[in-house]
Design a protein that fits this description.
The complex is a heterodimer of chains A (360) and B (222). Chain A has 360 residues and is an alpha+beta fold. Chain A has eleven helices and twelve strands. The longest helix of chain A has 43 residues, at 220-262. Chain B has 222 residues and is an alpha/beta fold. Chain B has seven helices and ten strands. Chain B has a six-stranded mixed beta sheet with strand order 6-7-8-3-9-10. A four-stranded antiparallel beta sheet of chain B has the order 2-1-4-5, covered by helices on one side. Chain B is globular and about 45 Å long. The chains are: A alpha+beta (360), B alpha/beta (222). Chains A and B meet through helix 1, helix 8, helix 9 and helix 11 of A and helix 1, helix 2 and helix 3 of B.
């Protein structure tokens, strides 16, 4: 951009500051909305994924033929890669207590989520909680101690729980305590994985390839529900973005169009004193690009702020910023400003200068 | 050798015939005024001469260049190299001051030079109005800026469409005297459209038009 071009461009913009700011504001609005929606949309997959993970795994790895998995293999499965978002170890078995045979589930204490507990969660290896359906059968209350037949081990009842599933008829014990009770120290019954829903099949294949003796089942219901919710949210975002973008482009187009129409006389004069169509287009498009840039920068800042505010309100934490959004927003702002200017300028340049200069 | 050659120029707007078979030759350095009542086609002819409008048929040759065959951008380049315009309305860029308006014509021609632009304005008597915007200038002063702008690139041809049409008699005389002096110094060709008999007398030659035709073409007796 040479000095004189910049000089005349700056003069034109500073004289028509109001129009310039109006154009930049129109760009800013579209870019802000698109930035906010794109940031939330890209971040929401992770956020909602995290929310849904609280409700359980979408893949279960078992030893296949009734045996147990070595805890070392379980740890290796858990550390498989980025596709595995979360994993927990569980042991299953049966034991007799108060002359009743009960199913035992051993869970890592920090993975005990989704339980409605009366009392408290068991945290140490000699504590347990009883499913609501067993409460009456076993006649236990929080604080009591129960002794298992056979092994003679004693555990303190910390509470009773309800999960709304078959698990309500079981006893839940922290993993180490359950392994001890069931004679499975150093071994586990299953690894529950929460894997990237878009790559479930690949993850399952990777596990069976590496450990052929393991059996992998995807919990389709959970996975499909998670994917369905995410897809719907993203579709909604896409529709809102499209509507907002369309309205903004129309508004911007009329602002830019009015700007060009107001300056038809100037266009005619520039042609008369020797400006080519390219010269004139360069002036107008540069002005539009600058309005687009100014609007894009402020729009990106406002959009990001809005996305973070919404995320904070909805998820209680900030949404991660994507490196794709900033250049995308910039390109979008400049493109819509340029497109909204290009067509009115092209039409204005079809007019014969003699007609414009005569005031027709 | 003629500087301008017009051959059988016609111009039709929808059903109206604005020009009807104009043939004319103008020599280099001549000052020709085109006169005629409103609607006689004189402004249309001037616009065609300047490449601001195209004839329906016929050819226009200026300084050996057949401008009727040029593309729009070629015409623009030809205008900035060869022609200066002065219109009835001043058509100045409102956000540029007097010097900057002149410099804008330099920008499209070559490189703006503020000192040259200011000198051009001093020559038209506006040395004290260099930094004034069009809205701060009188009608006569605005036309002087237009003359300075039209002549800043030393064009071979000055086309003026009713340049004094909006001015009172005193300002009209001032502008014409200015044009006469500049013409005498620089010997560019002038084609000036007017309907004012007072203005027409300042030319070397008067072409009178009626209904899109040339009815008389006579030298002015001094």
């Amino acid at each position: 951009m040479n000095t004189w071009f910049r000089f005349f461009l700056t003069k034109a913009i500073s004289q028509r500051r109001g129009r310039f700011l109006l154009s930049a504001a129109a760009v800013m609005l579209s870019v802000a909305v698109v930035t906010a929606l794109a940031t939330i949309s890209l971040g929401v997959r992770e956020k909602i994924g995290a929310e849904l993970r609280q409700y359980g795994a979408n893949m279960i790895v078992t030893p296949g033929e009734g045996g147990a998995i070595d805890a070392g293999v379980g740890t290796a499965v858990r550390g498989l890669g980025a596709d595995v978002r979360d994993a927990s170890f569980q042991v299953y078995g049966t034991a007799r207590v108060r002359q009743v045979s009960v199913e035992i589930t051993g869970i890592e204490p920090d993975k005990m989520t989704g339980y409605r507990v009366q009392g408290s969660l068991p945290r140490s290896a000699d504590e347990l909680m009883v499913g609501v359906n067993l409460k009456e059968v076993l006649q236990v209350r929080p604080g009591e101690r129960v002794r298992f037949e056979g092994s003679g081990q004693e555990y303190r009842v910390t509470g009773t729980f309800e999960k709304g599933s078959d698990e309500d008829g079981t006893i839940v014990i922290p993993l180490a305590g359950a392994q001890q009770l069931l004679g499975m120290t150093g071994r586990i019954s299953a690894v529950l994985l929460n894997a990237d829903t878009a790559r479930l099949r690949e993850t399952a294949e990777a596990i069976t390839r590496q450990w052929p003796f393991l059996e992998v089942k995807t919990l389709r219901q959970v996975a499909v529900a998670e994917e369905r919710i995410l897809s719907r949210i993203q579709l909604l975002m896409l529709i809102v973005t499209a509507v907002v973008l369309f309205s903004s482009v129309v508004a911007l187009g009329s602002t830019m169009g009015a700007n060009v129409i107001e300056r038809r006389e100037e266009i005619g004069l520039l042609k008369a004193i020797g400006a080519t169509r390219g010269d004139i287009r360069r002036f107008f498009m540069s002005e539009a690009a600058l309005a687009g840039l100014a609007g894009s920068f402020t729009g990106y800042a406002i959009g990001t702020l809005a996305a973070e505010t919404v995320s904070r309100a909805a998820f209680g934490s900030f949404v991660p910023l994507s490196i794709l959004v900033a250049p995308g927003a910039l390109t979008l702002g400049v493109t819509i400003a340029a497109a909204a200017t290009y067509f009115p300028v092209r039409d204005a340049m079809k007019i014969v200068p003699a007609q414009i200069l005569r005031g027709e | 050798m003629s500087f301008i050659v017009l051959q059988n120029i016609t111009k039709t707007y929808d059903t109206a015939q604005a020009l009807n078979g104009i043939d004319c030759r103008i020599g280099s350095g001549e000052w020709v005024n085109i006169m005629g009542p409103s609607g006689s086609g004189k402004s249309t002819l001037l616009n065609i001469l300047g490449g601001l409008d195209r004839p329906t048929s016929g050819s226009v040759t200026i300084n050996d260049t057949a401008i009727t065959g040029l593309s729009e951008d070629q015409l623009a380049r030809f205008r900035r190299e060869t022609i200066g315009f002065v219109f009835q309305q001043s058509h100045l860029i409102p956000y540029l001051d007097a010097a900057e308006n002149v410099m804008l014509a330099q920008y499209f021609h070559s490189i703006p030079d503020r000192s040259e632009a200011e000198e051009a304005l001093r020559r038209v008597g506006l040395g004290h109005r260099l930094r004034h915007r069009p809205s701060q200038l009188s009608g006569g002063e605005q036309q002087r800026v237009c003359i300075a702008r039209a002549l800043i690139n030393s064009p071979a041809l000055l086309l003026a469409d009713e340049p004094t049409g909006n001015l009172d008699r005193t300002n009209t005389r001032n502008i014409l005297e200015l044009l006469r002096d500049l013409h005498a110094q620089e010997r560019f060709t002038v084609v000036l459209v007017t309907h004012d008999p007072f203005v027409s007398q300042w030319a070397h030659r008067i072409i009178a038009m009626e209904d899109g035709r040339i009815v008389t073409d006579e030298p002015v007796r001094s």
